[in-house]
Structures
1.
Amino acid sequence: MNTASILSALEAKHPGESEYLQAVKEVLLSIEDVYNQHPEFERASIIERLVEPDRVFMFKVPWVDDNGRIQVNLGYRVQFNNVIGPYKGGIRFHASVNLSSLKFLGFEQTFKNALTTLPMGGGKGGSDFSPRGKSDMEVMRFCQAFILELWRHIGPNTDVPAGDIGVGGREIGYMYGMYRRLALENTGTFTGKGLDFGGSLIRPEATGFGGLYFVDRMLKTKGLELKGKTVAISGFGNVAWGAALKATQLGAKVVTISGPDGYVYDPDGIAGEKIDYMLELRNSGEDIVAPYAEKYGVAFFPDQRPWQQKVDIALPCAIQNELNETDAQTLIDNGVLCVAEISNMGCTAEAVDLFIDKKIMFAPGKAVNAGGVATSGLEMTQNAMHLQWTEAEVDQKLHQIMNNIHEQCCVYGKQSDGYINYVKGANVAGFMKVAKAMMAQGVV
Ligand code: GLU
């Protein structure tokens, strides 16, 4: 494979799509060796076919705000690859959403979903609409307008959307309600639904829980455990909440959370009612963490990121590229043991290279955060069977899946010196599954 020429051709075709190009580059660099051992992949142009989404829907979303004014946002659904199963992936509502970010997320999702061992392809969607500061009715009208266009392209065996940044239970409920009216069916064409209408137990916690099960496995490879370790978390949404809950249950101490306004440092640990308070903060619609510092009398660092604190474990849980090379160096200087992305592509490429170069335990989002979409897969299974599993059943399956993903990363990522390169491991394991399925299904 001539990685440089593939990348430059892609850059010429899609100028300015920096996140998408960053994600493709990371995958190509780590699969190069394995790819070159399979000339049949080259003959079948697997890479050229894999880096482009199957199709992209892009549409306007006109809606009426509380003042009677008409607003127009952009809506997207990127159906990236369905060779393994129906397109599957979240919907993101955030001001930063554009085609590049959704193509990067759809591309990553394809490999992540392959890693889960469940039959799901990759997709992603969203809008530059931000629910922050909007009333419930505004959010409902927006979600309905979004689905008025999207509904015809999705279905329980075609494309199954879910939540992501800015899309939680409330937004899924509004979107699913509108979808059900238009499609005249109720077969679960969304995951992350409310428990009363087909949702799965553990789904809200799953991304964070799965992330911590994975970190636990990483530590065990060195004979270490989570108990007694300090943890820095960024974000304070669904993912950060689940991560804080499980880290605390496993005996670690979470000392930071963050929002767009800065971060909070709580040396006593964010546990018990303080974790519940995160939910209150999130639901307040303000999208800031400063009130936590005031309520519990701890330090607040405006406009800064939590990576400057001395911790054993760092878990980015917010958005892409939220931890850069300087942050990585600070964490390393402070003796960090393990960094695991629970957000998608939470670290910049330079930060990742530095962690790997210094042999710090580091694992990428597509492995660490796969528990969210895996539990969505379990929700699809329960919907198809028209029944609901218990919390213990779902949690046990999620735990098993995360252990399995860790195992696959070791198979493909363990170096001769014993260091586990999880980036390589996850990329190669995900790629091999997708590539083999594409080979088996011919040129389609
Ligand atoms: N948005 C989540 C992710 O990035 C979950 C997707 C899903 O459940 O389909 O994997």
2.
Amino acid sequence: MVIKQVRIIDPTDNRDEIGDLYIRAGEITHGPIETDGPVIDGRGLTAFPGLIDLHVHLRDPGMLHKEDIHTGTMAAAAGGFTSVACMPNTRPLLDTPETIAYVNERAKTAHARVFPIGAVTVGQNGQALTDFAALKSAGIVALSDDGEPIDSATLLRRTLQIAKHLNLPIMNHCEDREMVQNHGVNEGIVAEKLGLPGRPAVAEVIQVARDILLAQDTGAHLHFCHISAAGSVELIRRAKADGIPVTAETCPQYFTLTEDALLELGALARVNPPLRTAADRDAIIAGLIDGTLDTIVTDHAPHAMEDKMVPIPQAQSGMIGLETALGLALTFLYHTDKLDLLSIARLMSYNPARILNLPYGTLQPGSPADITLFDPHETWTVEPENFHSKSRNTPFGGMMLRGRVRYTICDGVVRYGVER
Ligand code: DOR
Ligand code: ZN
């Protein structure tokens, strides 16, 4: 296969130039060579190393009416993602080698690479640790109790000590549970208008502070899930300056929306941690610009419509994101001149590969041919009814975005493609 006259963006060597990309036997190779596969006209398109989302919920096993590995990875491919790491809050949970083996088996016929994340505690109940070594042998790339914060500092410290030896990152969902016994709405003016109790930003920040201390104490790699609050960004910025081994992610909803979305969209905008204020959103953007936040993930959290078309207190938390993430990043960060294309490729491909120790996120010759081809200027309207995901719970329906995926190539195979 050859992609001709495409704008090649590779953070590995800060490459940004028009050229041809040659692919042979599933690998990127030095050209020019004879190829027998398809020729893609890349004029007007941009090539990133395949996007990597290290935080998705595929709901498989056990909640197949919301999503499964097949539909979740179709959504991933349609969104430009060649790799996803899936969270363990399935039924049963991914807390045994057997459930990890199930995901890996299903992943063989998926539309993107799937990397399971193992649960930290058995049943995600915050009590007994799972068998990290056995889970690692079964193929996990990280450990997390996402959805459930790890309450006990002692337990998290022990977790970090063991995970360090196994070279596994710990991904923590930071919210002080005692402070957030309510419904995916930020504490403040919007919660008051809605007459609901809110989740304060400090519930996130206080656990980020604690976790930084534990990462420093143990020297283990701690990764912060879905950072939403300005205070967290500030603490992570300082921790990195101090050389503490932390990394962090945020999601499109936190750099595009504020708590006001709840007034308009109701439960579609309910998510944990909650959408916050304009000042928080601006701090998230500043964190993406200066590298405090390492990666943009979706936290793709499919829910059935009957769990969302209900009053906020009765709804489930979470929103899907695989099919809108690149368009949102390009519209809100690139076309607003906040970030260049190399930075977006770093945030959505190069950095997440490094965080999970995966050999992707690069377009260097000899690397697996995982490539996302997109038209950075094409405008389109988000139509949830046309999503590949089984679920429709997005707050972005009807929004006009600028920048659209054209081809997703994984291991040299076109997994998604739209002709112009
Ligand atoms: O809103 C959320 N939904 N936050 C999480 O951390 C978990 C997720 C889910 O699994 O639905
Ligand atoms: Zn979470």
